Amino acid sequence: MADRVMVFIDGSNLDMATHEAFRRRVNPVKVANKLVSGRRLMRINYYESPLLPEINQNSFNDQQSFFQALRKSSPFVEIRYGRRVKRDKGYTCPHCSQPFTKTSYGQKGVDVLITFDLITLATMNAYDVAILVAGDQDFVCPVCEVRMMNKYVENAFTGTAWAKALKDVTDKHTLLDETFLSDCWQ
């Protein structure tokens, strides 16, 4: 029986890293299928926080279209949602010394959701192999926990935003470079 594989993709992290490294967007389903490489795909979990329509309706619509295209591209795709939170940060103008506030809306809960799914699904014996497409060092402990459950953990990410500590605790790691991604662009 072939290994049952689940792919866990930190969507925003992957999108930002590939944009920074290559100035292009990848198709996450193509990346996942290439990483699975003929093994038995159980699910591709794509994690992202929805944009807020009241902040930018066009960006929200574009993201919703992207989510819909992801769902249509494979019956194995599930989109798992974090949330957006308002963050106000105070600054001082370097020219006039006047204070001002800049508001942004950052994602929250995505890493926790990925961690929850990695561990919960391993506990439920839903997979034999987890492929984590993320570069964040915060995943070191969850990966170690899953490996202690005798699950094989692979990690893939770009070289520019990949924590060495994460690579070091996985069974296999794959560099998402121009060569690997050559047939995975949007």
Structural commentary:
- This protein has 186 residues and is α/β, with parallel strands linked by helices.
- The chain has a single domain, classed as 5'-nuclease (Rossmann fold).
- It is 36% helix and 30% strand.
- The chain contains six helices and eight strands; from the N terminus they run βααβαβββαβαβαβ.
- It has helices spanning 11-22, 28-36, 57-73, 110-123, 140-148, 164-169, and strands at residues 4-10, 40-48, 77-81, 83-92, 99-108, 129-133, 152-157, 172-175.
- The strands form two sheets. The protein has a six-stranded parallel sheet with strand order 3-2-1-6-7-8, with helices on both faces. A two-stranded antiparallel sheet has the order 4-5.
- The radius of gyration is 18 Å and the shape is globular.
- 32% of the residues are buried.
Key structural traits:
Rossmann fold; 186 residues; 36% helix; alpha/beta; single chain
